[in-house]
Structure formats: C-alpha cells, structure tokens
Specification:
mainly alpha; Arc Repressor Mutant, subunit A; 2 domains; 190 residues; 9 helices; Tetracycline Repressor, domain 2
C-alpha cells in the first residue's frame, strides 16, 4: 500500500514539474496536476493538504536538482573555473527552461514559496562561497568575504536573468556577459 502511495506521489510531482515548466505556478492547480497525473482531484489531498503545500514541495524538488547540477558542475577544473561554472550552469540551465526558471526565481506565488526561495538562494550562495573561498585561500583571487561576494553574485545573476526569462530576449551573449561580470566582481581577469 505504501509503495503504491509513494509511486502515486512521485507521479503527481512529475506531473506538477511538467506543468510548472509549461505554465508556471498559475497552471499548477490541484485539478490540473491531478489531470496530468491521471488521478482524481480528490486523490491529490492524500498527498498534499492544499495548493500551497504542493507548490512548496514542487519548488524544493526542482531547486534541489538545480543546486545539485551547480555543485556537480563546479567540482572540476582550475579554481576560478569552478567559480565560473556556478554562474554558467545556473544561467545556462535557466535559459534552456525559461518558463520554469522564471517560476523558480520570481513568479508571484504563495508566501511559503517565497520563504523557500530565500533558503535556496542561500544554498546557491554557499556553493559560490565555497568555490570563492578556495580560490582566495590559494591566492588565485584577491582577499574578500566569500559569503558577501557570493550573495551579491547570486542576487545579480538572478536579477539579470529575470528580464530575459520573462520576455524571451536572452541573447547568445547573456551567459558570457554574466561570466565576465562574475570575474570582474571577484577581482579576477575577464
């Protein structure tokens, strides 16, 4: 019985992720997710108390994947390349799935999701900060507060992407420009 419930919950989350990528949070009503998952709307309430709970779980699931991708991408290479990999991966993935990225970064939704956004911004900041601290410790980057620099880079990167995500105006130069901005902010060579 529990295995069946777990499988159904996974199916519901996968359906919700697809809808989020296509329509944003506005398209993720309990009824729409249920229909996409092939279950009755009432069955949704066996897994989620309400839409807000679904939205939070959806956000956590997708953002955890994004953080994992950034961590993985920033494991190899020269120290500065590891820092650059954070912004390249973050921005590159966002631009490949603009509707999904906008939903995660800025789409107005439940206040509980806004709280989760702060938690995940700190997670991205921490990845950046770890890579920056390594480069500073090895003398590759000038002395700086890695957490402050990282927070500024996460905020700037997210803000720089919101406009292109909304209006579809991202140019092929968006990611290289963010890399150049990041290197300048770090005190490295552009």
């Amino acid at each position: 019985m529990q295995a069946r419930m777990d499988a159904q919950r996974a199916s519901v989350l996968n359906a919700a992720i697809e809808l989020l990528a296509e329509q944003g949070y506005a398209g993720c009503s309990m009824a729409a997710v249920a229909a996409k998952a092939g279950i009755a709307t009432g069955s949704m309430y066996q897994h989620f108390e309400n839409k807000a709970e679904l939205a939070v779980e959806l956000f956590r699931t997708v953002c955890a994947r994004e953080v994992a991708a950034v961590v993985e991408a920033s494991q190899e290479g020269e120290l500065v390349d590891r820092v650059v990999a954070v912004i390249e991966t973050f921005a590159g993935r966002a631009l490949k799935a603009p509707r999904l990225a906008y939903a995660l970064l800025a789409e107005p939704v439940d206040p509980a999701v806004d709280e989760e956004r702060l938690i995940f911004r700190r997670a991205f900041r921490d990845v950046f900060a770890e890579r920056i601290a390594e480069a500073v410790d090895q003398g590759v980057l000038p002395p700086q507060d890695p957490h402050l620099t990282a927070a500024a880079l996460v905020g700037a990167g997210a803000e720089a992407l919101v406009g292109p995500l909304v209006d579809g105006a991202a140019s092929p130069g968006t990611v290289p420009a963010l890399v150049q901005f990041t290197l300048r902010a770090l005190g490295g060579s552009a």
